[in-house]
């Protein structure tokens, strides 16, 4: 259509409406109230314009306000030309509202990445075309095929009756598509989040109320376009959401990201499986525990990913921990149901309880062995009492009784100290001079057993990171080597050496003897292969393993050729920063002895059976 023709149409409409006659009515008042509320919402949003989606809601509110304003003027106009003018002007707001709502839904629900300048321009094209067609109605009939003023039931003023053209219905379909899609996106994103259900309800009311009014008008149910009235409801819903429920301050974008991030960072392993026992999702912790990846596990049967876990879950409730075959770590298993309208499944949570289970076993063993040792001590004391009754005043029996009572008292004190460490959430390690400690303890053993030869090969100092109880471990090893030796003159060699293994610094404590081999059951307890202690002879070797393990160290056993035993304890050495912080002199690199992995398997003892350190007894 020629531009001069369009200009003529606009000029005729403007001249016809130059002296319009207006009449106020209740419907006009409602429209103007919608204008006021829409402007108020826009102003309130401007103060929170940094919140997600606030800028698009400002555009939405102003578009609704313009729509309501021009529709109020349309209703109040008494001439056809004035009614047509304001009806066309109302499209300035009409074409803004649906795209603004759609963009708001995308931004508010975290889909802003879908928006680019190109897509925004595409969204605006139908709006611009529709607004342009609204001004060519007189010549094309694409928007309005025919129109006239007709009386309306219950109204004092006539209203514009329009027979709509094809372009109008295309616009209706487009606007409903945008509004409906935006609403669905919003509901899908936040309906599951309990925190946001009230906010979602406010938003849902805000968007559906205007379009319900519009649908009633388009379908011919209502004589007036009630869309602006719906915006009155929208303004109230949004206003309540802003002030009471922090509609824009707390939003599902942050909540959804936080929930996803929480699951991703959980130390507990989380695995989701469907009704057919197939893995549908798992978090990074589960990937580490099951030694798999999300891509590899998704869609695979749980039995293929973790056979022992699938077997454990085959019953109604897991009756034991899940123990990873490769690492031996224990995980407490919790199972909860996952139900939706279209599927069911289970959520499996694995919590690492390795340390807890180990401590539970340690406490159980400690109690059992303590009862065993105390029962033996009581029997010995009873025997001494019987002998003393038969031989009153016998100093040997009295000394034996006193010695056994002292051993019981020492045992009780040791157990009390162990319990204190077991009650702690994490082992408390200190930096100790192992060389000084060994020097003191071996001297005490030599004094108590003057017939024994206790040799030492110790550096001036050897600092280690260990529990304060490490002295008890040294006592048990050296005393066992002496007391369980069947020779009249037991021989024990105790050495401390600084070592480097795979670039890490350690301190090795080596206790060798020429006594009978340690029984297999006791050796299993000593190196931690069997914590049951069912066949072990007492608490001492179990204490050695427990103290060293909780100190972050290891215990090794090997036979001493041609006869005897060698027990090696390896403890971590402090780093250079500790020496600098404490002002200690430290040691040079020459004082550390490199050990390769291969050399670890070689016997550090003299296979000839001679005593490699000579006969330097610790003085009594």
UniProtKB/TrEMBL annotation:
GO terms for molecular function: phosphorelay response regulator activity; protein histidine kinase activity; protein kinase activator activity. The chain crosses the membrane at residues 24-45, 57-73, 85-108, 120-147, 167-188, 200-222. GO terms for cellular component: membrane. Residues 576-620 are annotated as: Disordered. Its EC number is 2.7.13.3. Residues 369-575 form the Histidine kinase domain. The keyword Transmembrane applies. PANTHER family: OSMOLARITY TWO-COMPONENT SYSTEM PROTEIN SSK1, TWO-COMPONENT HISTIDINE KINASE. This is histidine kinase.
């Amino acid at each position: 259509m020629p531009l001069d023709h369009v200009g003529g149409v606009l000029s005729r409409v403007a001249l016809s409406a130059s002296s319009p006659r207006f009449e106020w009515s209740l419907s006009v008042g409602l429209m103007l109230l919608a204008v006021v509320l829409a402007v108020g919402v826009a102003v309130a949003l401007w103060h929170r314009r940094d919140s997600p989606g606030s800028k698009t809601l400002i555009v939405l509110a102003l578009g609704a306000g313009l729509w309501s304003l021009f529709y109020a003027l349309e209703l109040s106009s008494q001439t056809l030309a004035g009614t047509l003018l304001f009806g066309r002007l109302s499209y300035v707001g009409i074409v803004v509202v649906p795209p603004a709502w759609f963009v708001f839904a995308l931004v508010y629900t975290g889909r802003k990445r879908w928006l680019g300048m190109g897509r925004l321009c595409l969204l605006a094209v139908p709006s611009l075309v529709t607004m342009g067609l609204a001004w060519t109605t007189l010549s094309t009939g694409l928007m309005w095929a025919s129109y006239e003023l007709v009386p309306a039931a219950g109204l004092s003023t006539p209203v514009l009756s329009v027979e709509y053209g094809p372009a109008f219905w295309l616009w209706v379909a487009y606007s409903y598509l945008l509004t409906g899609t935006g609403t669905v996106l919003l509901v899908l994103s936040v309906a599951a989040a309990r925190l946001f259900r009230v906010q979602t309800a406010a938003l849902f009311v805000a968007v559906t109320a205007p379009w319900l009014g519009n649908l009633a008008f388009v379908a011919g149910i209502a004589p007036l376009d009630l869309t602006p009235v719906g915006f009155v409801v929208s303004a109230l819903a949004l206003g309540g959401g802003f002030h009471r429920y922090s509609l824009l301050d707390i939003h599902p974008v942050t909540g959804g990201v936080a929930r996803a991030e929480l699951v991703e960072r959980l130390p507990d392993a989380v695995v989701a499986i469907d009704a057919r026992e197939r893995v549908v999702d798992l978090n990074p912790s589960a990937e580490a525990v099951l030694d798999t990846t999300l891509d590899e596990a998704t869609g695979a049967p749980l039995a293929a990913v973790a056979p022992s876990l699938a077997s454990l879950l085959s019953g109604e409730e897991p009756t034991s921990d899940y123990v990873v075959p490769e690492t031996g770590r224990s995980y407490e298993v919790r199972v909860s149901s996952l139900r939706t309208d279209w599927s069911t499944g289970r959520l499996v949570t694995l919590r690492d309880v390795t340390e807890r289970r180990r401590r539970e076993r340690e406490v159980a063993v400690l109690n059992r062995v303590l009862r065993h040792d105390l029962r033996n001590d009581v029997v010995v004391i009873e025997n001494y009492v019987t002998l003393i009754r038969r031989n009153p005043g016998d100093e040997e029996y009295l000394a034996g009784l006193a010695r056994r009572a002292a051993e019981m008292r020492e045992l009780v004190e040791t157990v009390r100290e162990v319990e204190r460490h077991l009650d702690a959430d994490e082992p408390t390690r200190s930096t100790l001079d192992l060389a000084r400690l060994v020097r003191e303890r071996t001297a005490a053993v030599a004094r108590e057993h003057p017939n024994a030869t206790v040799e030492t090969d110790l550096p001036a100092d050897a600092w280690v990171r260990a529990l304060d109880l490490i002295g008890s471990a040294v006592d048990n090893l050296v005393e066992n080597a002496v007391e369980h030796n069947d020779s009249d003159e037991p021989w024990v060699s105790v050495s401390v050496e600084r070592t480097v293994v795979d670039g890490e610094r350690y301190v090795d404590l080596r206790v060798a003897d020429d006594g009978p081999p340690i029984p297999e059951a006791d050796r299993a307890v000593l190196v931690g292969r069997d914590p049951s202690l069912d066949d072990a002879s007492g608490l001492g070797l179990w204490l050695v393993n427990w103290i060293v393990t909780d100190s972050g160290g290891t215990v090794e056993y090997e036979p001493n050729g041609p006869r005897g035993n060698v027990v090696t304890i390896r403890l971590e050495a402090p780093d250079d920063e500790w020496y600098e912080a404490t002002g200690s002199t430290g040691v040079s690199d020459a004082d550390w002895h490199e050990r390769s992995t291969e050399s670890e398997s070689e016997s550090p003892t003299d296979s000839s059976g001679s005593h490699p350190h000579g006969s330097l007894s610790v003085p009594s």
